[in-house]
Amino acid sequence: MMKLILLVLLTSVVISCNQHSQILSQSNTDDQTAASIDTVAKQFLIDITNSAWFQSEMAQVALKKSHDTAILSLARTITKQYTRIKDRTKIVSIPHKLNMPYFLLPDQNAKVTELKGVKDDSFDHEFISHIRENDSMILKMCDDFQSSPDKPSDVMQLIEFIRSTVQANQSKMQSMP
Description:
- The chain is mainly alpha-helical and 177 residues long.
- The protein is 82% helix and 0% strand.
- It folds into 2 domains: 1-35; 38-173, Ferritin, core subunit, four-helix bundle (Ferritin, Up-down Bundle), CATH 1.20.1260.10.
- The chain has 6 helices and no strands.
- The longest helix has 34 residues, at 2-35.
- The radius of gyration is 24 Å and the shape is elongated.
């Protein structure tokens, strides 16, 4: 009977040690995954988040200032699309333990403020110009990142989503001034 109790206790200790070892191994794997994304990829995710936020903020200004139904429709679409880009970027950043910014950069804030001050008769043209410029910048960021070595697959999938969203946005703007 004593041998049986000792055997049960010894088995419990061995199982407990194995579970602890598996937990430590999983923790080390999680740390390696978090560290697997390089500085270039981290900066790309941050920059895309900022650019998507900026695009959404400019669209919000258009929703308040414009009287043109085509511009209002575009602004609603941009708000939805670029919020989705921002959300998808956040999802991609989570396994890499990257905290995404939830603010605009000072120059972005200045452009939003400037857009708010544009007179009604030239607002639509200025809005479209800013949106096109930012779309071009987003596509350039995607191109630049794709040319860097060792690209994480989750970031590459995000880039495909961003490209299709921006291209859809650009095609909708083709008929606008």
